[in-house]
Design brief:
single chain; 320 residues; alpha+beta; 60s Ribosomal Protein L30, Chain: A; Phosphoribosyl-aminoimidazole Synthetase, Chain A, domain 2; 2 domains; six-stranded mixed sheet; 10 helices; 12 strands; globular
Length: 320
């Protein structure tokens, strides 16, 4: 049964690439890194009830398992190429496998990501996806490099995914279309791969917003040895978030909710217009939400000008 499941995944995720010398079927894959490129690798694990609610559609699980990893490549300015999938299942459910593989393939096809191997085993429902991509030597984006005076920007909008999770977990009087839009951002985030490629040589630091804006920006502060000041009034919200929640709730989702997988990055102020114009050309909005300053840590200025004191910074798997 295990090998039948593997065959179903392979059939539904096939993506031919010349740099895949040997893919699924042997003890390991044989892959060729193109000349003049550096290899960028990332891995994330998703566990039912932790990273996605019980009852999430298999296709959405497959999509998101790949999306969160492609977002890591985007944050590094890397072009995606290959993926590995380790899947733990409580039972050999063919319908679940078909749905998961379909969702995975829908996103993989957009970026020509080839699934080149992995593993299946019995256990609680969880997925680990490892992705590999390419970047020219010395051009990978990192969390280090932000300098005082740089502008802080985010792509897209913030808070939708956390709001979507709230809608699933609570009784909310929200129109169905609005609720579906928010839950859709939770279940099917869109990795900002094109934006990440465009930020090569332009951004001074970059990461993706997975654990919450405040927590993730704190990583840039630590790696770069700087502080960041954010203006809450500048945070970008989607029409759905504005329609469903008041300013206080929306701000909480945007600052600490996470799971949006937008890029947060810094650029020298002299290049601000250039970067925004380039991302706009790609169809990706970018909003300046603050500035890099001397010091340490992230501070948020409220709409009244006073500094806010959020109750938490973001997601922590091992927090009480």
């Amino acid at each position: 049964m295990e090998f039948r499941l593997i065959d179903r995944i392979r059939e539904r995720t096939a993506q031919p690439r010349d740099d895949v010398r040997l893919g699924i079927g042997d003890d390991a894959a044989v892959l060729a890194v193109p000349a003049g490129q550096e290899l960028v690798a990332a891995i994330d694990t998703m566990v039912e009830g932790v990273h996605f609610p019980v009852g999430t559609a298999p296709a959405d699980i497959g999509w998101k398992a790949l999306a969160v990893n492609l977002s890591d490549l985007a944050a590094m300015g890397a072009a995606p190429a290959w993926a590995l999938l380790a899947l733990s299942l409580p039972r050999p459910d063919v319908d679940f496998i078909d749905g998961l593989a379909e969702g995975f393939a829908q996103l993989a096809g957009q970026y020509r990501v080839a699934l080149v191997g992995g593993d299946t085993t019995r256990g609680v429902l969880s997925l680990s996806v490892a992705v590999h991509g390419f970047v020219p030597p010395g051009q990978a984006l990192t969390r280090a490099g932000a300098q005082a005076g740089d502008a802080v920007l985010v792509t897209g909008s913030l808070g939708d995914a956390a709001a979507g999770l709230h809608c699933l977990q609570s009784q909310t009087d929200i129109q169905a279309a609005t609720r579906d839009a928010l839950v859709g951002r939770l279940n099917r985030p869109m990795p900002r791969v094109a934006a990440g490629l465009a930020l090569r040589g332009r951004a001074s630091a970059c990461l993706d917003v997975s654990d919450g804006l405040l927590a993730d920006l704190g990583h840039i502060c630590s790696a770069s040895g700087v502080g960041v000041e954010i203006d809450a009034a500048l945070l970008p919200y989607s029409p759905a978030l504005r329609a469903a929640f008041d300013e206080t709730a929306a701000r909480g989702f945007a600052l600490t909710g996470g799971d949006d997988y937008e890029l947060c990055f810094t650029v020298p102020s002299a290049r601000l217009d250039e970067v925004r114009d380039e991302l706009a050309r790609l169809g990706c909005a970018a909003t300046c939400i603050g500035r890099v300053v001397a010091g340490a840590g992230v501070r948020v200025r409220g709409t009244d000008g006073a500094w806010l004191e959020p109750a938490r910074q973001g997601w922590d798997h091992f927090a009480p």
